[in-house]
Design goal:
Blueprint: E1 2-4, E2 7-9, H1 13-29, H2 38-59, E3 63-66, H3 70-76, H4 84-96, E4 130-131, E5 134-137, H5 162-170, E6 174-178, E7 183-189, E8 203-207, E9 211-218, E10 224-231, H6 232-242, H7 251-257, H8 261-274, E11 278-280, E12 287-294, E13 300-302, H9 314-334, H10 348-357
Parallel strand pairs: 3-5
Antiparallel strand pairs: 1-2, 4-5, 6-7, 7-8, 9-10, 11-12, 12-13
Helix pairs in contact: 1-2, 2-4, 5-7, 6-8
Length: 363
C-alpha cells in the first residue's frame, strides 16, 4: 500500500514484474527495442524495504534471511524478477541510517537521531551470520518439515535392487495394518537407517493417512510432467492384495520374504510418497503440506486445514521455520553471558532438537 498527498493506493509489483518480463522476452524474440524494467524494480524494492523498516521499529523486531550462497545468488541473476542481492544491500543501507521523515528532527528516529540497525555494507563475503538486526540462517529443512512434530524425511528411498529394498524394510521395528484407524503404520528408529538423526528424536511411527500428489513423466503425453493423486492406504491395500500378501499377518516378514521387483519397487515408491511432505500439482497453485506423523493428540498436520496459527501452504511453512531459526539465534544471544563469542551458526542437529523439543513454547 502506497500513500501520496494523503491518498492511499496499491501497486501489484509482482504482476507488473511478471508482465514486463514476458514482454521483454517477446521483444527479444521479435528483435524489438527492449524496455528497461530497472525503474519498476527500484519502486518495488523501495516499497518493500520501507514497509520492513516500519515493522522493525514498530515491533522492535529483527529480520531473518536465508543464508544463500554466492553461487546460488549468481545463478538467479539471469531471472529478471529476481532481486536477491539488490534487496539485501538496499535493506542494509536503509537500516544503517534509518530516518522517519514524519518525526521531529530531534526525536528518536528523526533526522538528528537516526536509528542505526545495521553496520555499513562492505561485502556479502565479510558479513558473516549477523549484521546488526539482520540475521542469516541456513535454509536446511525449513519448508519440508512438520511444523508441529518436527518430523523430516531422512530416508534414502531410491530404488536400487530387490536385495537393498528388502534390507530397507527389514530395518523397521514393525510394519502393520491398523484395522481400527484403517491405515498402515511403519514404526522405526532413525538410527537403524541413518546417522543424520543422531542427538535428536529417533523413534517415530509413520502412517499412511491422507492423499499425496505423485509427480512423474507421462509417456502418454510426450514424457511431459504430469500429476496423479494417490490415496495411500488404498494403494497399499491394492498392491498387497494383488501380490497375495495378507495385511492381517506379519507384514514385515512377508515383505522381506518377497524377492520380486514386481512388488518391491512399487512398495518403495508408495513409502516414498508416504513421507513426502510437500504436494504440488504442476501448472496450478495447489501446493500443500501433509505430515505422515500424528502429534500427541493424534492429529496429522495438514496445511489446508491447520487453523490460524500454523502455516497454510509450503511457502508459508518455509517462512515460518526461517523465523524459528531466527528465534533460536535470538535465544542464543539472550541466554549468553559472553556476547563476544556467541555461535549463531545453527547446526542441523541443533535445529531438529529445537523444533522437536520446543523449548520456546512457554518462553
Amino acid at each position: 500500500m502506497n500513500e501520496y498527498n494523503g491518498k492511499k493506493y496499491s501497486t501489484n509489483y509482482h504482476s507488473l514484474l511478471n508482465e514486463r518480463g514476458k514482454k521483454r522476452q517477446d521483444e527479444r524474440q521479435n528483435w524489438q527495442t527492449i524496455e528497461s524494467i530497472k525503474e519498476l524494480k527500484e519502486g518495488y524494492l523501495s516499497q518493500v524495504i520501507h514497509k520492513i523498516a516500519q515493522l522493525m521499529v514498530k515491533y522492535n523486531a529483527i529480520v531473518v534471511l536465508e543464508d544463500l550462497n554466492m553461487g546460488f545468488k549468481r545463478s538467479r541473476q539471469c531471472v529478471e524478477s529476481s532481486v536477491y542481492q539488490q534487496f539485501e544491500k538496499k535493506l542494509i543501507d536503509k537500516l544503517n541510517f534509518l530516518v522517519d521523515k514524519n518525526l521531529p528532527a530531534d526525536a528518536n528516529g528523526g533526522l538528528l537521531h537516526a536509528y542505526q540497525l545495521t553496520n555499513k555494507f562492505v561485502s556479502f563475503q565479510k558479513m558473516g551470520k549477523q549484521n546488526g538486526f539482520l540475521f542469516y540462517i541456513p535454509a536446511w529443512n525449513t519448508s519440508k518439515i512438520d511444523p508441529v512434530t518436527g518430523f523430516v524425511n531422512l530416508f534414502d528411498t531410491h530404488y536400487r535392487n530387490e536385495k537393498t529394498t528388502r534390507e530397507f524394510f527389514g530395518k523397521f521395528k514393525d510394519i502393520r495394518f491398523n484395522k481400527e484407524k484403517d491405515w498402515f503404520e511403519f514404526e522405526f528408529d532413525y538410527a537403524d537407517f541413518t546417522s543424520k538423526a543422531e542427538g535428536t528424536r529417533r523413534d517415530w511411527t509413520i502412517c499412511t493417512w491422507g492423499k499425496r500428489i505423485k509427480t512423474f513423466r507421462n509417456k502418454e503425453k510426450n514424457s511431459e510432467w504430469d500429476n496423479e493423486e494417490i490415496e495411500l492406504t488404498k494403494a497399499f491395500k491394492d498392491l498387497f492384495a494383488n501380490n497375495s500378501i495378507n495385511i492381517f499377518k506379519d507384514l514385515k516378514k512377508q515383505i522381506c520374504d518377497y524377492e520380486s521387483k514386481k512388488i518391491l519397487e512399487p512398495l518403495l515408491g508408495l513409502f516414498k510418497l508416504t513421507v513426502q511432505m510437500r504436494n504440488s500439482k504442476t501448472g496450478t497453485e495447489e501446493d500443500y503440506l501433509l505430515s505422515p506423523v500424528a502429534d500427541e493428540n493424534g492429529i496429522f498436520y495438514c496445511s489446508e486445514n491447520c487453523g490460524e496459527n500454523l502455516p497454510k501452504n509450503a511457502d508459508a511453512n518455509g517462512a515460518y521455520n526461517i523465523a524459528r531459526k531466527g528465534l533460536w539465534a535470538a535465544m542464543q544471544i539472550r541466554n549468553s553471558n559472553n556476547d563476544k563469542n556467541i555461535n549463531l551458526a545453527i547446526s542441523n542437529r541443533e535445529w531438529l532438537s529445537f523444533v522437536q523439543d520446543k523449548p520456546y513454547i512457554n518462553d
